[in-house]
Specification:
The chain has 372 residues and is an alpha+beta fold. It is 17% helix and 9% strand. A hairpin with a 2-residue loop joins strand 7 and strand 8.
Length: 372
């Protein structure tokens, strides 16, 4: 490590007599959890190339963040206080779907303060070089990221100029959403981790591992042929009222397709955004979903300019729609419900969002550890 950062660390350690309240709110600085401050993580000369960390970066975090049965007997050795109960992340990485190719350090800064936001607001990035969590995710899953060559350039799907998108980067475009459940409203924002997170609600939060395909936090059948139950599409029903969907409050043939024909929501909807359709309908995508092909006249398209009516050109499991129109010339069928209550002012902890630019410095940076 460089001489400058070595001196910085020595100076920081010397300043530790300062009251704990001066340090950022992060469990790693909580004196009831760490019997001794700093030294469980920084000591001696440290591992090469690190700010005197007590281990190399590969498994550094997991020596504490593993099952209680393994970490508890070693608490004193790990420098932990009696109240400490580090979340078990090691077990998350043994599930069928994991983020095993991304490292803890790529998504976390060990000193970043923890900010938990209410549902409907944007989550703050756990890594300091990004402002919001979505900026972090899209740094790898968007056009500019390591996964950018991927045909699913995810950042493209969420931009505000699209006709429809889940409100991760921008919000407030929805006009008719009879199914939306409280506390969500058409003005809400949401996060990648509202959908991609631990499938065990009592386990540690975050996109570390899940038993559900695509690292989803709740069950979601991606293929046709499944019997519709509250569990089959639990992910969507968490925010979109099942009774509303199945009573055809918006699309007049939801029940026919989902219950009678056993079509998955995923056959018709892209969960992220749609670059050329209303209501997240995905038929206009370059790669159609399985079971769906062009109609007898060669068209594969959803045409709709207003809620409650639309026209489909496609063949689904052999059924030709060339075209099939719902809502007809009649008045739009969607009856928007009154907007659900917006969370009270005290819950508005997330700062308003600016244009999604990666890598810019954090505007509201919390108090830093003492430098020099
Ligand atoms: C849970 C482990 C942990 C604890 C506890 C901890 N650090 Fe760190 N620290 C790290 C890691 C990991 C890094 C490397 C950068 C990163 O991931 O944020 C780091 C980086 C640093 C740096 C380099 C500059 C920077 O901010 O990146 C300094 C200085 C530092 N720590 C000082 C301290 C001091 C002083 C304390 C005690 C108040 C402390 N650390 C407690 C894990 C810890
Ligand atoms: C020396 C043990 C130790 C190490 C090493 C360690 N942690 Fe922790 N971590 C803890 C403890 C203890 C807690 C608090 C858990 C509790 O009791 O609520 C914690 C909490 C956290 C939290 C929740 C923060 C909060 O304020 O609620 C995050 C995120 C976290 N750790 C990430 C990391 C990452 C990333 C690393 C590696 C850079 C790491 N930890 C390394 C012991 C450790
Ligand atoms: C450092 C790069 C990186 C970052 C940052 C990152 N990911 Fe990933 N992600 C990956 C890689 C690589 C994979 C492939 C699976 C693996 O890790 O083995 C992946 C896999 C996934 C998958 C599973 C895809 C599948 O086909 O099953 C989802 C979902 C996902 N990431 C969501 C997220 C979310 C949400 C965030 C932000 C909280 C995020 N990612 C941040 C690199 C990253
Ligand atoms: C965490 C809550 C949440 C979950 C989970 C969720 N949605 Fe949404 N959904 C919303 C919100 C909020 C909006 C309103 C968007 C707006 O108005 O900006 C929305 C809007 C929509 C729209 C209308 C988009 C438009 O532009 O007209 C569709 C279609 C939709 N969701 C389908 C789904 C499906 C399918 C799933 C399951 C894969 C799902 N949603 C899961 C919160 C959620
Ligand atoms: C056969 C295709 C199809 C299937 C399958 C389907 N949808 Fe839709 N959905 C649509 C269409 C078309 C619309 C647009 C209706 C309109 O014109 O406003 C829509 C609208 C929506 C909306 C926005 C309006 C509202 O009701 O709030 C939501 C949310 C939604 N669907 C959720 C779901 C969920 C959840 C499932 C699975 C349980 C599902 N859809 C299955 C075609 C489908
Ligand atoms: C409303 C829920 C929802 C939100 C919000 C959401 N996803 Fe997804 N995501 C899904 C579902 C469902 C799938 C399964 C694939 C499908 O139906 O296309 C998926 C698939 C993925 C995949 C794997 C396949 C692909 O399309 O590349 C990645 C990676 C991913 N999501 C990352 C993200 C990132 C990053 C964000 C935030 C910028 C995000 N997701 C936001 C529900 C969501
Ligand atoms: C792909 C990005 C990503 C990777 C890789 C990742 N994390 Fe996380 N982690 C997150 C996000 C995002 C959250 C916050 C989720 C939330 O607040 O809902 C989180 C939350 C946590 C928490 C707090 C859990 C809680 O319930 O309070 C701990 C502890 C943690 N991570 C440790 C780790 C450790 C240790 C590793 C490496 C083994 C790791 N993470 C790898 C993105 C990641």
């Amino acid at each position: 490590m460089s001489k400058l950062s070595f001196l910085t660390l020595v100076a920081s350690l010397a300043l530790l007599a300062r009251p704990a309240a001066a340090l950022p709110t992060n469990a790693h600085f909580d004196p009831t959890k760490f019997a001794k401050p700093c030294s469980p993580c920084h000591q001696g000369h440290g591992a090469p190339g690190t700010p005197r960390l007590t281990g190399g970066t590969r498994d550094f975090c997991l020596k504490c963040h593993e099952s209680a049965s393994r970490s508890a007997p070693r608490k004193a050795f790990l420098g932990l206080g009696a109240a400490a109960n580090p979340q078990d992340i090691r077990t998350e990485f043994t599930k069928p779907v994991t983020h095993s190719r991304a490292t803890c350090f790529e998504c976390h800064s060990a000193h970043a303060p923890r900010v938990i936001v209410a549902a409907g607001f944007q989550a703050v990035s756990p890594k300091r070089s990004f402002r919001f969590e979505a900026d972090l995710c899209l740094s790898c899953h968007g056009s500019r990221g390591a996964q950018g060559a991927d045909p699913h350039d995810l950042s493209k799907l969420f931009v505000a100029t699209n006709p429809s998108f889940h409100p991760v980067l921008a919000g407030g475009h929805g006009t008719s959403l009879p199914s939306l459940r409280s506390p969500y409203s058409a003005a809400s924002l949401m996060n990648c981790t509202d959908c991609h997170t631990n499938d065990d609600p009592s386990g540690p939060r975050g996109p570390h591992g899940s038993r559900v395909l695509r690292l989803l936090g709740r069950n979601y059948a991606l293929t046709d042929g499944q019997v519709e139950t509250a569990a089959t599409y639990a992910l969507c029903y968490g925010c979109h009222d099942r009774d509303s969907i199945l009573s055809d409050a918006s699309f007049s043939a939801h029940r026919k397709h989902v219950v009678d024909e056993r079509a998955s929501c995923a056959t018709c909807h892209n969960p992220h955004g749609a670059t050329s359709s209303r209501a997240l309908v995905r038929f206009n995508e370059p790669v159609p979903t399985s079971g769906v092909t062009a109609s007898s006249s060669g068209r594969l398209e959803f045409v709709s300019s207003a809620p409650g009516r639309g026209t489909c050109f496609l063949t689904c499991h052999g059924k030709n729609h060339d075209p099939l129109t719902y809502g007809g010339g009649a008045a739009p069928m969607a009856r928007p419900r009154p907007a659900p209550a917006v969370p009270s002012g005290s819950q508005r902890v997330a700062p308003p969002r600016a244009a999604p630019v990666q890598g810019r410095p954090e505007p509201v940076r919390p108090p830093d550890l003492p430098k020099q």
